[in-house]
């Protein structure tokens, strides 16, 4: 996919999404719901049960935690996003691959997205390190997207498994046998002492995303993808999107129609409301995002900003933002411009 890849740790998880992919996947219409807010309101701090006193004092050392992603023959996970904080340090793994590292609650939570394997077991594993004797705790919320268009939220609680000791070899693998592990001990809610209120991850960093002004037609050609998520900020806020989706900035007077692979995802006409769109799956080869925008008022500034987060099954992810690699026409769009096989060889690079 054209564009500049960015880290994904600056994406906000503190916003709701308006999921809409009816034209793309009409069979999922009944299953799709408004996406939940990803926060810590129902999550708890957990540890191994070794902690003592109101300060949750625990010995120094590393302790492993595991949780399996729910799935069934009819409900296959494709993608997951986690927000996490820990006292003190915690690398985060999905199916044996490290996707990031948590940090202390006082520094604020972090967010990571990873592709999942729809056909096999998926496990989040977190290695919690208490660097010195004292308080210790892990808190997390995981949002899982499924191929049927639904989502499920997993919270840190006693359903997570842990050990009162050093993690054995291979413990991050989904095939690891944790049947003898014990249930995690719940220390308290997200506001519990000594940690206090948690700051959710900051808004997506769109400072390097170009504003594409006064363009009628836009296309972005994508490379082969696994699971994907797209994000869009509105003003100083951000929208949290799920699975494969796209979000935009446009001025209040403007209207746009958003297409993915030739199908209408949504229309919109305001930048004051956060716009979020979701698709549970993309094509395995080429994917095209297209936008048909109109400046309805004339002689006013209009723009489009887009962020695309792609999560791969190997645990990696990439962020792509609007820049000069997008193709455009300062004219009415030709018939079929939104189709993946449309010829845009004579289109020009978008102006920032």
From TrEMBL:
The protein, known as: Lectin
Taxonomic lineage from the root: Eukaryota, Fungi, Dikarya, Basidiomycota, Agaricomycotina
Gene3D superfamilies per the UniProt record, alphabetical: Galactose-binding domain-like (2.60.120.260)
Species in which this protein is naturally found: Armillaria tabescens
Lineage top rank: taxon: Eukaryota
């Amino acid at each position: 996919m054209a564009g500049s890849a960015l880290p994904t740790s600056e994406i906000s998880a503190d916003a709701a999404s308006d999921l809409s992919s009816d034209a793309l996947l009409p069979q999922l219409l009944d299953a799709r719901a408004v996406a939940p807010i990803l926060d810590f309101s129902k999550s708890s701090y957990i540890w191994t049960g070794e902690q003592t006193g109101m300060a949750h004092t625990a010995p120094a050392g590393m302790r492993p935690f595991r949780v399996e992603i729910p799935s069934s023959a009819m409900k296959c996970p494709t993608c997951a996003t986690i927000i996490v904080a820990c006292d003190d340090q915690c690398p985060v793994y999905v199916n044996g691959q490290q996707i990031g590292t948590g940090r202390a609650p006082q520094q604020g939570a972090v967010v990571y997205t990873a592709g999942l394997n729809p056909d096999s077991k998926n496990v989040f594993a977190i290695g919690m390190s208490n660097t010195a004797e004292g308080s210790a705790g892990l808190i997390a919320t995981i949002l899982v997207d499924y191929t049927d268009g639904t989502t499920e939220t997993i919270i840190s609680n006693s359903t997570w498994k842990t050990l009162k000791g050093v993690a054995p070899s291979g413990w991050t693998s989904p095939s690891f046998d944790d049947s003898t592990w014990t249930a995690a001990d719940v220390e308290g809610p997200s506001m519990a002492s000594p940690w206090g209120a948690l700051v959710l991850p900051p808004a997506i960093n769109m400072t390097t995303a170009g504003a594409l002004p006064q363009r009628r037609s836009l296309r972005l050609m994508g490379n082969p993808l696994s699971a994907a998520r797209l994000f869009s900020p509105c003003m100083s806020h951000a929208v949290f999107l799920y699975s494969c989706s796209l979000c935009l900035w446009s001025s209040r007077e403007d209207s746009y129609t958003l297409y993915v692979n030739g199908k209408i995802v949504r229309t919109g006409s305001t930048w004051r409301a956060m716009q979020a769109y979701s698709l549970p799956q993309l094509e395995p080869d080429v994917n095209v995002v297209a936008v048909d925008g109109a400046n309805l008022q004339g002689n006013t500034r209009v723009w489009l900003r887009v962020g695309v987060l792609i999560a791969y099954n190997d645990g990696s992810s990439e962020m792509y933002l609007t820049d000069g690699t997008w193709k455009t026409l300062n004219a009415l769009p030709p018939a079929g411009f939104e189709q993946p096989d449309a010829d845009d060889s004579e289109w020009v690079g978008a102006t920032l």
